[in-house]
Task: structure prediction
Amino acid sequence: MTKLSDAFDINGMHLRNRLVLPALTTNFATTEGAVTGDILDFYRLRSKDVGLVIVEAAAVKQSGRITPRSMGVWSDDQVPGLSALVRAIKAEGAAAVLQIAHAGAQSVPGIHGQWGATPSGIAFNPDVDAVPMKTADIRQTVSAFAEAAARAAAAGFDGIEIHGAHWYLVSQFLSPVTNKRDDAYGGNARNRARMAVEIVTEIRKTLGKTYPVLFRLNAVEKINGGQSVEDALTAAKLLARAGVDAIDVSLIAQCKWSGIDGHSYLTGTSVLPMDAPAGANAPLVAAFKAAMDTPAIGVGKLGDNASASHMVGTGQADLAAIGRQLMADPDAGGKIINGQPDDIIRCKECLACMERIGRGKPVICAVNDDLTGRAGKP
Ligand SMILES: Cc1cc2nc3c(=O)[nH]c(=O)nc-3n(C[C@H](O)[C@H](O)[C@H](O)COP(=O)(O)O)c2cc1C
Result:
């Protein structure tokens, strides 16, 4: 049976074990999207035991930032800071992947000329105008993803992950809830995947076949008319054919429509509700493993050892990503691998972290008031 401590390779990227730090937006960058000392320390602490670190969403365009201090990869000026981050992660023995993202209409209101790019004008925030993209906008954004991937490679990242989940821009195209277009980018699952496939194709043209490319998508969207597992699999197969090396299987776990002044808007989150059991997403990632040869990453309350071991051990996933629990206790990965799960300082699932970044503030954790490990140090 596969163990969490077993090594794994993704298109030549060697991982010393099966644990992954998934992308976790800290909102610790500068207002210009540059890496800070807080970011270096946050990642250094969480790189020492896992096989793979997927660095938080970095915006491919300044107008596509998720938070006011989210990381950026839209400019060559950001490359030296990103290189320092790669060195910090690799010095601890983990492989480093950068998540590249465009927030679309989930972008920050009111800064840097944000204009709320969307497939079809569905809004996510009453303060951000949701504007349907023209074909030229889509093409330009596809190029921005490829340029961002080239910057990530130049900075020394071992690979990139395209953020195609959580109803950010690429995911808005994939989702039947947010994509109502009647052109080549809308309609059936194949058409809705067109933008994502074009991004992968353009990245492959820019970086060749040997650079690891991961793709995060919603395996399911728990809302009326949301993306189904079947549609997500259709997209994933097209993406794999275009050159994606691993599928990072996430979801919209909770969401709702709200209304203000007669306008409706959508909000959603990838985190499982408190009453969902650890590893509740296992059947989702298993569906990808059963239908495809492409490696798959599972996520969702896997920070308790048993569920991560079970998921990987039974072949439901190749890798287990542990998010909030590694925020709460940066040593949780080592404690899991070394068989000391009882020593883990438990995440309370209070979502203070998400609530803070939702308000544009640097992330906090209710059980860890020293996320960078710098308290008391000069
Ligand atoms: C504070 C916070 C920030 C997050 N930022 C990102 C992000 O930048 N990109 C992304 O794909 N997912 C992001 N996520 C989702 C996580 O990667 C992960 O899928 C989610 O927390 C579920 O895993 P968990 O139950 O182990 O926490 C974030 C989650 C939290 C709590």
Remarks:
- The mean pLDDT is 95.
